[in-house]
Amino acid sequence: MEKAILTGNRKPILLLGKKAPEYLPEDIAPKQKRLGVMLPYAPLQLLLFPEDLNFLVMTSGNISGLPICYQNEAAIKTLGTVADYFLTHNREINVRVDDAVVKIVDDHEVLVRCGRGYAPLTIPLESGKEILALGAEQKSSVCIARNGFAAVSQFIGDLKEYQTYQAFERQIEHFKSLFHFCPEIIAHDLNPDSLSTCYAKKQDGHKIGVQHHHAHMAGCMAEKKMTHDAIGVIYDGTGLGTDGEIWGGEFLTGSLSGFTRAGHLEYITLQGGDNAVKEPWRCAACYLFALGIDPHEFLPQVNPAYLAAVRRALQCAIRCFETSSMGRLFDCVAALCGFQAKITYDAQAAVEFENLSEENVPGYYPYRIDDSENGLILGYEDILKDILRDLQNQVTKSIISSKFHNTMVEATADCVCRIREKTGLENVVLSGGVFENTYLLERLISRLRDLNFKVYYNQLTPTNDGGISFGQAAVASAILKENNNVSCDSGQSNQHE
């Protein structure tokens, strides 16, 4: 399969496991077990390979966090202090598109980033009206739906960067022109502060707000043409919930048009706003403070004054928020296992933590699941206390990582079984950015199948926020279909204007 993907006509970047001994410097992909590999896809690239050159080390033409440069003058101005030479062309590029990234999961090709060769990604989707879905604020993409199909754009990026927001606006106009499209319905995230939502508010037409995690679930369901209710396990970093808190470790039941929250990871109070994402040690400190444990022993690389400041801010409720985020729990454990610096790319701590894990480590940590009137609550106290005990006993970090991943597999499967007992549902959807973690995803798929569940996960669309726009379009289409194209309230997921 890997050979077929590499030599096929799409020529994506394929994530492949490193082999020993390594011939390339570790600095190319530090603390990673995989490298992104692609074959030349244009004649010009073939000309770069003389007979004695077997490979090139390449990276995208952009400053980290900004869109790729696609115009000659802009590239020279932006990258002049980074690159020594520029190969320019007299044929202008009209639309910037990153390389697509794929990997193999469960013996299937899975799209990580939609780009060249894949975008615009067309997927069957019945919609009674012309729908524009605006996606998430991070890993942004846009989607249009009409005439029985949806078209998903290439990866755009983080809309908080002004250049990326401009690219977002240009992509919408490009789709309107390319598909002769005039949106009647605009689907957007429920978060009123999201820049994609702010864009929606300024547009004409009927608006449908879609809860972030329901969009993840619905995108996978629509991709798989699922027509019946399912259990959704949605693990990611951030998404505004219907209770006004930040969700991210969610167990949902429902369909394309609506959902019920059946359970979630136990809430934790985090401090620091966006800094809690950029500095994983903050997550660890907040979890330990919540357990009544002094974090100094377990976070030796962090300035004690910073830890004291976080403690005072928690006591005074300064820049604090409640969250059930699974992504932040992974950040917490990654920090406890040594990642106590500021991240330099999205989810770096969790990515490096996954790469500490080993294939054949058995066992998992004890966990607690409470059945409350608001659904199942997956607790973190027992898990973290046993991890701290292992750290004090100098258990290797690779074993701790493996056992933590195994714990999340067992605890998740346990929650899903309890939901099946209550609902009778046997179809399970796995989605959200945390499931970019291949170790976690493959083992959870296997565990749930052993328990006689039918398991579905994103393949055509990214499981991360790059797939949100398609999920929003699927939700909006289902709502319109159920209500004969007349808007009405249809459950927790949606808001209409």
From TrEMBL:
| Catalysis: reaction(s) | C-terminal L-cysteinyl-[HypE protein] + carbamoyl phosphate + ATP + H2O = C-terminal S-carboxamide-L-cysteinyl-[HypE protein] + AMP + phosphate + diphosphate + H(+)
Give the matching InterPro entries.
ATPase_NBD, Carbamoyltrans_HypF-like, DHBP_synth_RibB-like_a/b_dom, HypF_C, HypF_C_2, Sua5-like_dom
Q: Which UniProt keywords apply?
A: Ligase, Metal-binding, Transferase, Zinc, Zinc-finger
**Ranges where the YrdC-like domain occurs:** 1-117
Q: Name one GO biological process term.
A: protein maturation
Kindly give the Pfam families that the UniProt entry links to this protein: HypF_C, HypF_C_2, Sua5_yciO_yrdC
MF term (GO), any: carboxyl- or carbamoyltransferase activity
List the Gene3D superfamilies hit by this protein, alphabetically.
3.30.110.120, 3.30.420.360, 3.30.420.40
Q: Which family does it belong to?
A: Belongs to the carbamoyltransferase HypF family.
Its recorded name reads Carbamoyl phosphate-converting enzyme HypF
What gene does the UniProt entry assign to this protein? hypF_11
